[in-house]
């Protein structure tokens, strides 16, 4: 009898154990959890996300304080040509003085404008005055009355930023309806060299920051900010291809501030020149027109078509038909790269030019003169 009771007790305990386990399972699967945007889950202030192998912070992960720090400094930019809004973009106030506030945006946002208006974060529209603009920099400075500005953005540095750092943008993608849009992501790359085409089909290399934060038409000229709300770049362009997603680019803020004084004063940015007319070594039709034949092994470089009188090149050993392959030992693949390397220097600097002539590599010194528009 005692053995039977003992057996029954064991059975009861076993059944209770099974039922208890089932009850805990039912409770567990019906308990709600917070979904993390990185693909993991968390139920309190932090937990370990196995899918992404990093600690996920919920309570401390918001960018709202940093957004608030910069939000009122950002404005929508309208480019009027006549009575028509030709284009829109973004910009931000970077400084004030006793009378005025100064806003940075892109050259291509205000190019050709007969009137520029700015829409503040409180939806008030004000008129701005274009002080200076530069096509190669893709930067412009617009001035407004100090009383018309709400806030001033804090200027940071991109040099201290690291790939993988959190970044965000504030701008007006697709125009008025979506003004004040905030998007975030990471700093995807630094010192990217992208080729852009400007007027007269002059290709130029821009060294830029890359981000996966969403940027769209209308974001141009707006700030790229770090996680503490400091401006590290100015949104300028993105890759637009069917198979490409989230590849936007920003001009490093240091590059912009280096030239800001000239832009504020409406002065042309002084740029050096070699003093040559040139075409790419791959442009066989253009070379044929000028009566130049290259060795088939020459697949890159810049060909001298003509040398300007009283220029640095005219006092060097360069002549028509030479193929420039390096400036101060930096490779020159095409005209875009030549401009990129050349514009690192100042008027009056002397540089070493490496070139090919009759299949032989030669070098010469060129003193750079100032570029003057016709």
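^ Assign residues to that structure.
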């Amino acid at each position: 009898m005692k053995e039977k009771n003992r057996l029954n007790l064991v059975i009861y305990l076993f059944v209770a154990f099974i039922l208890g386990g089932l009850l805990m399972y039912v409770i567990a699967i019906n308990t709600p959890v917070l979904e993390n945007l990185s693909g993991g889950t968390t139920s309190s202030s932090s937990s370990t996300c196995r899918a992404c192998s990093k600690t996920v912070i919920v309570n401390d992960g918001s960018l709202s304080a940093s957004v608030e720090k910069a939000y009122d400094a950002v404005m929508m930019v309208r480019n009027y040509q006549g009575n028509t809004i030709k284009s829109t973009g973004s910009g931000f106030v970077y400084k004030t003085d006793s009378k005025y506030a100064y806003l940075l945006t892109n050259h291509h946002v205000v190019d050709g404008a007969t009137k520029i208006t700015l829409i503040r974060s409180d939806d008030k529209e004000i008129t701005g005055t274009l002080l200076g603009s530069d096509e190669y920099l893709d930067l412009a400075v617009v001035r407004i009355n100090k009383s018309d500005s709400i806030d001033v953005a804090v200027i940071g540095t991109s040099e201290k930023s690291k790939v993988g750092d959190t970044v965000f943008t504030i701008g007006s993608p697709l125009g008025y309806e979506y003004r004040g849009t905030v998007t975030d992501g990471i700093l995807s790359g630094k010192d990217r060299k992208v080729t852009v085409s400007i007027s007269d089909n002059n290709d130029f290399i821009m060294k830029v920051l890359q981000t996966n934060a969403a940027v769209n038409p209308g974001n141009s000229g707006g700030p790229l900010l770090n996680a503490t709300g400091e401006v590290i770049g100015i949104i300028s362009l993105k890759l637009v291809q069917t198979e490409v997603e989230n590849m936007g680019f920003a001009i490093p803020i240091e590059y912009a501030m280096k030239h800001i004084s000239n832009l504020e004063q409406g002065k042309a940015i002084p740029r050096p020149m070699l003093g040559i007319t040139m075409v790419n070594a791959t442009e066989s039709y253009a070379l044929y027109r000028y009566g130049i034949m290259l060795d088939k092994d020459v697949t890159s470089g810049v060909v001298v078509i003509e040398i300007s009188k009283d220029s640095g090149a005219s006092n060097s050993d360069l002549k028509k038909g030479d193929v420039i392959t390096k400036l101060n030992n930096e490779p020159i693949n095409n005209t875009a790269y030549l401009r990129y390397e050349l514009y690192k220097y100042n008027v009056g600097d002397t540089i070493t030019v490496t070139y090919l002539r009759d299949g032989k590599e030669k070098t010469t010194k060129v003193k750079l003169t100032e570029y003057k528009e016709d």
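The chain is about 15% helix and 40% strand.
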